[in-house]
Known about the structure:
The complex is a heterodimer.
Chain A: E1 4-7, E2 10-13, E3 19-25, E4 31-37, E5 43-51, E6 54-57, E7 64-66, E8 76-78, E9 87-94, E10 108-109, E11 113-117
Chain B: E1 3-5, E2 10-14, E3 19-21, E4 24-26, E5 32-39, E6 46-52, E7 60-61, E8 64-69, E9 74-79, E10 88-96, E11 104-106, E12 110-115
Amino acid sequence: NAGVTQTPKFRILKIGQSMTLQCTQDMNHNYMYWYRQDPGMGLKLIYYSVGAGITDKGEVPNGYNVSRSTTEDFPLRLELAAPSQTSVYFCASSYSKVTSGRGTGEQFFGPGTRLTVL
Amino acid sequence: AQTVTQSQPEMSVQEAETVTLSCTYDTSESDYYLFWYKQPPSRQMILVIRQEAYKQQNATENRFSVNFQKAAKSFSLKISDSQLGDAAMYFCAYRSGLYNNNDMRFGAGTRLTVKP
């Protein structure tokens, strides 16, 4: 099991450019998440998905878009990059029972993508 | 909304000694999970220990244990016999037990230094 993988590891963007951060998990988890971590801070939820075709906003969704066409993949799209989006981005996944939402509660994290917008 | 507070930005401990990291949280829910995650310089988020709120017994994982005080909304992490490899950022996190609430809230973190 590779767990949660993210590409790229590093990226520098110019203001106004767009890009997609890729995330894939091979644990057959139904829930997937995108977080951002600003310097010296904890993680904040951007978007999450409870299954293929279903996504919802988290705490800080502005400037981002997501889609979930398969169980394995959950890409994060940045449109019109701004310096405020300079951060480290983490993808995570977890399993919860569909009927009750209960599982271990644990989220498994990818290695992160460091994004700089200049 | 739930909030998680880690009041110690930095802590240091001598190798082989014991250190306790503090965490408090605010919630009106009775069903939830609490976690401690470790983030070494590699940036990988690694689960250290988890606690379910309905379980009164404090969780333990080898050298790591928690002191879960539900009434006080306190969730501290004790690291015994500290090792150089324990040096990292430690994040306390809260997740609701509600099936339709997927928001995991993180504290700002505590940077732990281990002195040889």
